[in-house]
Amino acid sequence: MNMDAKIPGGPLEEKWSNYKKNAKLVNPANRKKIDVIVVGTGLAGSSIAASLGEMGYNVKSFCFQDSARRAHSVAAQGGVNAAKNYKNDGDSVYRMFVDTLKGGDFRAREANVYRMAECSLNLIDQAVAQGVPFGREYGGYLNNRSFGGVQVSRTFYARGQTGQQLLIGAYQALMRQVHKKTVQLFTRHEMLDLVVIDGKARGIIVRNLDTGEIERHAAHAVVLATGGFGKIYYLSTLAMGCNGSAIWRAHKKGALMASPSWTQIHPTSLPQSGDYQSKLTLMSESLRNDGRIWVPLRENEQREANAIPEEERDYYLERRYPAFGNLAPRDISSRAAKERIDAGFGVGALKNAVYLDFSKAIREQGVAKIKEKYGNLFDMYRKITGIDAYKEPMMISPAAHFSMGGLWVDYELMTTIPGLFALGEANFADHGANRLGANSLLQASVDGYFIAPYTMANYLSGEIHTGKIPTDHPAFDEAEKQVKEQLERFVHSKGTKTVDQYHKTLGKLLYDYCGLSRNESGLQFAIAEIRKLRNEFYENVHIPGTVDTMNAELEKAGRVADYLEIGELMCYDALTRKESCGAHFREEYQTPDGEAMRNDADFQFISAWEWRGKDNEPTLHKEPLVFENVKPIVRSYK
Amino acid sequence: MKLHLKIWRQKDKNTQGKLVDYWLEDVNPHMSFLEMLDTLNEKLVLSDEMPVEFDHDCREGICGQCGVMINGLAHGPLKNTTTCQLHLREFKDGETIVIEPFRSKAFPVKKDLKVDRAAFDRIIASGGFVSVNTGQAPEANSIPINHETAESAFDSAACIGCGACVATCKNGSAALFTSAKISHMAKLPQGKEEREHRVLNMVHQMDNEDFGHCSNTEACEVECPQSISVLNIAQMNYEYNRAKVLKK
């Protein structure tokens, strides 16, 4: 298995420049001869499709939503990081690199992380030029806020809708290319398989979700920018349609999956209120800038929040992590909340939440200022819960949020299948074992705008003499046949349970045994249960209707079938990583005061998994992590 | 609580649809409106009937994919709220709720409650952007934009493209949607270079779709989940006349 990360030579600061200096190019006349498929229209997908279109490549862009503007990047609230140092508070590319590497608990590649920080500068410029209305100071210059896990203010924001505004910028750039006919856009199309010819990614099989039609599309390279698979937990902050199917089907065609068990559980989501619930709404982490997190000091407290006096409140983050307080990184904040909730100090009807309190900030800054900063979040909170957070504390709880893991990619963002690239959350590259807040919009954007345009040209320069890829190749026949067989099998399955019922059962299993904390026997139990559940699913799921029409249950069935395999791999990944790092907390490996215990001697590597067939254990490959610039230290936010 | 639902069922775009009655016993008032539809669909699936197709995705009010007419109101009774953010506590026990798609000539029904809003994408493609390629941007702070201008541009840019404005308008006009983008861009220095071409192209595209004209009833603003102001329409008209006078 070729797992060369292809890190360029030279000092850290010069690696990306060196790469760009030496990368091969495709001249403008030849770009017309090259076809590229981009799956997904979030920040990473829209930005790479638009950028390639601008350069003159023939691009086909696919999304399952009814418009490219609806991809889930739209939901990121708080902001996007960039090391502009506009606040003169000591920020730099190097500082951002160190923060990100440390935030990820030293489980990411130095060169990738440094490049992301470096490209962050251009991203803000690009977004402003597109008309993204970032928050500004009265003098007209860009404003920043601070975010979890760092001590500088480097987060750019557009009220609580930064993801929406960045995505609209990218979507508009994409639609401009659609108008110019450099990009063909296929909305309501879902990728169901990757086509590999002579070892190279050469196309995809998609289903038109409106008509049920199966289509073949060929290209010289395929980009998967299909986001994360946190929806595997069923209850999550993700959109209902988010799924892992594109990357999983590519995985089964030979692309390795890296660290799939590293799932970020976000600390500030709304708590679950009942069994009918379909998603957990995220309240932006930016709220922690002014909100203070606490639980009652007394177990099983019955009084209303406002009736509990100051001295009977436990501001546990400020207590345990005085240096970072309420801005401790997400993994640490979520685990600390779980610790208090499990110990019986949770609040709310189901005792599954903690308070996020703005009374001090409102006293100090006034209601108007808080409203300007977070007005839409407070409104959203009121709509969902019926509670006015200007008057009483919010109730929040941890929820599955972001997949740090994903397809293994090298420095060029190419997977182990030549010609198959993975961008944004779909890859594993930059966040290590825990992503810092406001780095996801950043990573998705820089992958698409500034990195892949160079690395893909380097690959595509070898394709200028290839000619059109035919869609009548036997590899297309075979892939299409398998896709059709699976769909037919589903619609003939008339059992007693719905797809969602299986999804919920799987989600609960993973949340309990492969969620905020994990242990060996729990993971082994979960693997056995998932296998049973998967067999039952194929015997007993009920799918109505036919394959040749719009059929939402059929769409979900394919995604859940994949989740039932991804879930098992997540458990293997968590089981074999006998250390605690970032979001991965193995109960067996903790300090006496409950902090994560990393094991650099044995586990300073990226786990990359190879598919060995449905009934076989996957094979683990290791990419060692080398730290030449920063010495891994024990991550302390105390 | 108990609910009596009358839901628009339509097999596909070429088949005549009709309202079908459903009864739900024992739903929780804390459920969201879409979770109530999930509950109904689960029952339908298990009795081997086709579930009700409806658009939805993020379920936190920002993707703009959801949207149905609820008792004749776009996104239902709560002001400035998407369908996904509506909860059953807004309804009475035993209430009859009529659920229909966002009807408009420009939004053909695809199936049940799902409509085709691709016309919106075509309007944006016709000019709703700044023509800046990746890599061309100058340093972000080189052009100051005062706080109020940035905030005002944001107010226009906040549109989620759900189409409630069109569904609500008796004329089926897309003026609020189109004008929000035109204003967003016209307010910012980055958008000023193409100001005239943009408004002419976008209005032209809007007219070429099956949208009706704006007759200033302001119903759109009332139902808009993002409270996009009708003043954007005034700005669009101003921009249009200005561009015509300048004969660009």
UniProtKB/TrEMBL annotation, chain A:
Keywords per UniProt:
Cell membrane, Electron transport, FAD, Flavoprotein, Membrane, Oxidoreductase, Transport
Q: PANTHER family given for it?
A: SUCCINATE DEHYDROGENASE 2 FLAVOPROTEIN SUBUNIT, SUCCINATE DEHYDROGENASE FLAVOPROTEIN SUBUNIT
Query: Into which family does the record put it?
Result: Belongs to the FAD-dependent oxidoreductase 2 family. FRD/SDH subfamily.
**What is any one GO biological process for this UniProt entry?**
anaerobic respiration
Q: Which membrane topology term applies here?
A: Peripheral membrane protein
Q: Which top-level enzyme class is recorded in the Swiss-Prot or TrEMBL entry?
A: oxidoreductase
Classify the source by domain of life.
Answer: Bacteria
Q: What is its cofactor? A: FAD
Reactions accelerated catalytically: a quinone + succinate = fumarate + a quinol
- Which part of the chain is the Fumarate reductase/succinate dehydrogenase flavoprotein-like C-terminal domain? 503-637
Which residues catalyse the reaction?
Answer: 330
Q: What's this protein's name? A: succinate dehydrogenase
> What's its EC?
1.3.5.1
Give the subcellular location.
Cell membrane
Question: Does DNA-binding show up as a keyword for this record?
Answer: no
Name a GO CC annotation attached to this entry. Answer: plasma membrane
UniProtKB/TrEMBL annotation, chain B:
Concerning Gene3D superfamilies, the annotation shows: 3.10.20.30, Alpha-helical ferredoxin (1.10.1060.10)
The residue ranges of the 4Fe-4S ferredoxin-type domain are 150-179
Could you mention a single GO BP entry for this protein?
Answer: aerobic respiration
PROSITE patterns for this protein: 2FE2S_FER_1, 4FE4S_FER_2
Q: Which domain of life is it from?
A: Bacteria
Signal sequence bounds: none
Q: InterPro entries given for it?
A: 2Fe-2S_ferredoxin-like_sf, 2Fe2S_fd_BS, 4Fe4S_Fe-S-bd, Beta-grasp_dom_sf, Helical_ferredxn, SDH/FRD_Iron-Sulfur, Succ_DH/fum_Rdtase_N
Pfam families, from UniProt?
Answer: Fer2_3, Fer4_8
Q: Which cofactor does it need?
A: [2Fe-2S] cluster; [3Fe-4S] cluster
Q: Which GO terms describe its molecular function?
A: 2 iron, 2 sulfur cluster binding; electron transfer activity
Membership in a protein family: Belongs to the succinate dehydrogenase/fumarate reductase iron-sulfur protein family.
Q: Which NCBIfam families match?
A: PRK07570.1
Name of protein: Succinate dehydrogenase/fumarate reductase iron-sulfur subunit
Q: Upper lineage ranks?
A: Bacteria, Pseudomonadati, Bacteroidota, Flavobacteriia, Flavobacteriales
